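Technical annex, item 7. During the second reporting period the consortium partners agreed on a shared format for inverse folding records so that results from different sites could be compared directly. Each record opens with the tokenized structure and is followed by the designed sequence. A conforming record, contributed by the partner at site C, is shown below for reference.
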């Protein structure tokens, strides 16, 4: 495992011994993150970028946000924090503009290609206008378009390729890893039982309902009202169902800490069996790899995939 740092003057510094290191990836979050502490005999200049190689494979490429240097009896203790290169699209605002019947590839061409990004997105297009409002980042303009049309997130690879991420078709066994701890969390504070909405200003009442039949068996009663007329027309079709489903994202989660480095793709499906219970159909949402002088572990956060049994009806 090696971190290769590049200073603003172009000097490259390879570091393979760390006091601490943490590499995090989260589905639906634009930027991966990497931070590390290490000791050198001499101080280093301002860090511009960082790359992380694990088993000779490039796992992270990003730009340094923060750097600290502390001198003590051991030498210079260096700390840095970096975000993946997706931060370029996050930190740069998109020009407000209304696209006529755009595709995801067209948005990538207009908003990302000139900043060094490619894309391998499938054909995703809208038959309506797509308005990018003031304050929307370049990343947000692309990701929101894709999410509302497909219900899926985009991901940017260490080589600056924008791609769609989907749940794996195959299911792996989490027990193949050396599980150091496993924590199950049930969060009943977020799931919605139904959303009542109206589609346009001519409707006086919120008499359209999208309801989760699952909530009847769970004993959860929580209603939200949405006026779709306040949203751009192209966003209206999928907004209600996406919001209802997203309220269940944190309903059942597993946090597994495993020994060593778990090289697993986000949205990989897992099953897990303990002495007392089986956990089936969980999806990997976050992967956090930490390395200290005591050893290396990977914390995997998985979320239960739930059929909320939604129905839509009118009063």
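Designed sequence (site C submission):
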């Amino acid at each position: 495992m090696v971190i290769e740092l590049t200073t603003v003057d172009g000097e490259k510094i390879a570091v393979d011994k760390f006091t601490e290191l943490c590499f995090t990836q989260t589905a639906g979050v634009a930027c991966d993150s990497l931070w590390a502490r290490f000791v050198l005999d001499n101080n280093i200049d301002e860090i511009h970028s960082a790359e992380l190689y694990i088993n000779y494979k490039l796992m992270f490429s990003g730009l340094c946000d923060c750097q600290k240097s502390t001198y003590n009896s051991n030498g210079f203790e260096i700390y840095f924090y970096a975000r993946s290169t997706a931060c370029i699209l996050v930190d740069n605002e998109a020009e407000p503009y209304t696209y006529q019947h755009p595709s995801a590839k067209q948005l990538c061409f207009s908003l990302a290609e000139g900043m060094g990004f490619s894309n391998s997105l499938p054909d995703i297009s809208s038959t309506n206008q797509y308005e990018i409002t003031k304050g929307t980042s370049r990343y947000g303009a692309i990701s929101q378009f894709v999410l509302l049309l497909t219900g899926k997130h985009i991901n940017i690879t260490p080589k600056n390729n924008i791609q769609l991420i989907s749940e794996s078709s195959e299911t792996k066994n989490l027990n193949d890893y050396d599980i150091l701890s496993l924590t199950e969390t049930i969060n009943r504070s977020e799931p919605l039982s139904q959303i009542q909405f109206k589609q346009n200003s001519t409707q006086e009442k919120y008499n359209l309902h999208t309801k989760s039949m699952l909530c009847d068996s769970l004993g959860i009663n929580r209603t939200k009202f949405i006026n779709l007329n306040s949203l751009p027309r192209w966003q209206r079709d999928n907004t209600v169902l996406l919001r209802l489903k997203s309220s269940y994202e944190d309903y059942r989660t597993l946090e597994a800490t495993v020994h060593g480095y778990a090289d697993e793709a986000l949205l990989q499906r897992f099953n897990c069996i303990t002495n007392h219970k089986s956990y089936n159909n969980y999806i990997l949402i976050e992967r956090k790899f930490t390395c200290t002088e005591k050893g290396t572990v990977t914390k995997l956060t998985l979320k239960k995939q739930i059929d909320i049994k939604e129905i839509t009806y009118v009063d």
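The first strand starts at residue 2 and ends at 7. The first helix runs from residue 87 to 91. All partners now use this format for quarterly exchanges.
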